[in-house]
Amino acid sequence: MKSYHINLFKNVSGIVTREETILQPGDNEVLIRIKAVSINRRDIFILNQTYPLSAKQDVIPLSDGAGEIVATGKNVTRFAKGDKVIANYFPKWRDGKMGYDVVDQLGCTMDGMLTEYAVVHEDALVKFPYFLSWEEASTLPCAGLVAWSSLMGSNPITPGNTVLTIGSGGVALFVIQFATLMGAKVIALTSDDDKIEKLKSLGATHVLNYRKDSDWDKTILELTNGYGIDRVVETGGTDTIEKSIDASTMGGEIILLSPFGTINDNQPKELKYVLSNLFVRLVTLRPVFVGSRLSMEDMCRAIDINQLHPVIDKVFEFDKAQEAYHYFIEGRQMGKVIIKGSTNN
């Protein structure tokens, strides 16, 4: 089989293919023929060695993949040959609070999904809604579950809440779709006028161009009659956190998905200004790190019931993985960037 490995970090050209023997599943493992994988922002951090966890040397990258089970170990009870599955971002995290014993991640400390075949423990797997394509299903383990956990975690949003999204990446688009399903109002930020109508078609009530409206926090307060945002899903990091606080309602919550900025990462914020408004408004700042397997099962049920289709920007062939990385790094996509499984499998 062919697998991609990060042979050299900090350079896309260091992601290389290698011919390998197909592994056989252990007693509680399954062998999956990978049909599609998707790229996430964390995969770029891992490649550049700026991720909080250090990747193992020569790792097979990418956490998110969808595939078909082609063989099972003798003790496997949750799945059978032919099942269509996705693997949880944290294969060891079944439920409950995150702990040091479950921090291992696919495509980082464990081999990931950019390969023709993968062996995964059955407890890490979830069946995905069968109306989804392989490409659509491959978007769920990271971007989909991050969005779900941001809205439905320890403090679930309720109908009538107002949610703020930033940008048009996979997480932001999932947030719009999920929040709309839950009866929330969504205000979205973008830097591209060409994306405004698409964001509205997904469910956003108002879309603001933050490059043209530098006082978007004040505009949001006007749009909400001074009330503000109940839940900010903060994908902008340090670039937008201060205005996100200013746009929040009293007692609101900001979901922090990254400690890094996307534009001005070398311009640190004055902590006293950030904490001052955070305290005065009683805003909660809550980091979210994807989610557990049981949370992903909940998400898949909601997707199935509502027949929700993830947004895909572009699909690349298996032998064009480096091109897919370059395209993702350019940052102009709206939705997910997908790499198809090899035609050889």
Based on the model shown, name its key terms:
345 residues; 7-stranded mixed β-sheet; globular
Task: Compose a concise summary of this entry.
Helix content is 27%, strand content 25%. By secondary structure, the protein is an alpha/beta fold.
Radius of gyration based on Cα positions: 20 Å
Largest sheet: 7 strands, mixed
- Percentage of helical residues? 25-40%
What average pLDDT do the residues reach?
93
Topology order in helix (H) and strand (E) letters: EEEHEEEEHHEHEHEHEHEHEHEHE
What is the rounded distance between the termini?
Answer: 8 Å
* CA-based shape: globular
Topology:
Layout: E1 2-6, E2 15-19, E3 29-38, H1 41-48, E4 64-72, E5 84-87, E6 117-121, E7 125-127, H2 134-137, H3 140-152, E8 162-166, H4 170-181, E9 185-190, H5 196-202, E10 206-209, H6 216-223, E11 229-234, H7 241-247, E12 248-256, H8 271-280, E13 284-287, H9 293-306, E14 312-316, H10 321-330, E15 336-340
Parallel strand pairs: 8-9, 8-11, 9-10, 11-12, 12-13, 14-15
Antiparallel strand pairs: 1-2, 3-4, 3-6, 3-15, 4-5, 5-7
Helix pairs in contact: 3-4, 3-9, 6-7, 7-8
